[in-house]
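ok trying this again, last paste got cut off
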Amino acid sequence: MRLRIGLLALGLSIAARAEWPQFRGNPLLTGVATQPIPANLKLLWAYQSGDSIESSAAVSEGAVYVGNQAGELHAVNLSDGKLRWKYKTKEAIAESSPAVSAGIVVVGDLAGYVHGVNAKDGKGVWTYQTGTEVKSSPVIVGDRVIIGSYDGNLYCLSLKDGKLVWRFRTKGQVHATSAIANGLAFISGCDGVLRAIRIADGVQAYEITTGSYTGASPALSLSKTAEYAIFGTFDNDVHGYNLKTRKQMWRYENKERQFPFYSSAAVADGKAVMGGRDKFLHCLEQKTGKELWSFATRARVESSPAIADHRVFVGSNDGRFYVLDLNDGKKLWDYQVGEPMSASPALSDGRIVIGTQDGKLLCFGE
């Protein structure tokens, strides 16, 4: 239980989190909501941001924060979708998803800048320039921001003023978002290595060679007997690692459909669910990697699914938003948006928010 103890020591208990303040909802990147989602959903509002949204939304204190390809960070009301403010970044915000803490919203852009923005009024607080584009999403741990750059570094910045605390050099681009536990930042790298970096000083605690180029972020799963890291790769497979033994537990590969896994996994109830570029959503058993079910969409699934109330929520590039039964993968509901959705859903206060590639931010609830 070392990971759970470490999480509690940081004051980041998943059970205590009712909001969705960062990519995947929590520091373990599980994609699991702590509040119930209504059984009967409908579109409550749609906000037009003006350009494609690939950034996944964050939700905190009744506000939704999301970036777009126009290089704008938008803050809108969760209640009605009305604009609060817009903040202009240096270049487009691609897949970097905002993180919110202590009244500051943090996000990266394709010019390589990390921005700290006042959550109340949208005024810039600080910027930090990395070597090149930032597609990684920030994770906030206490008074520190952990974020990767395509310059090959994982950065730790001060949340207060954006000053560099430390940086760790990898052997490839840092695309994935860090999962946080036990004082460590876990990154599944483009250099084929799963690394555990100490947040206190930026020193590597250990590494596990995966041998696979990875764009997906690791999801951490805790149990009494094992500590797992699960993520898909561009080698058309999904890996499961035991962090206690630091060895691979299993490797999943679909022999019939050889496509990369770009979607980050959601983990709950002994299951790991992720989308594939094979147009399917896959559900695997966490301990063995055995496929429990798969669900076919009509296009790539690059959106990372979220889980609540034994249901799976995910967008697809086929222009539909899906709700599936976690136990058997049966479709419970879908909504035809008409435009691809590569962004991931954010779940908060009984509502679901997701962006589309035609620039809309949609909110579902009852």
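PB: full thing came through this time. Residues 117 and 124 are 5 Å apart (CA to CA).
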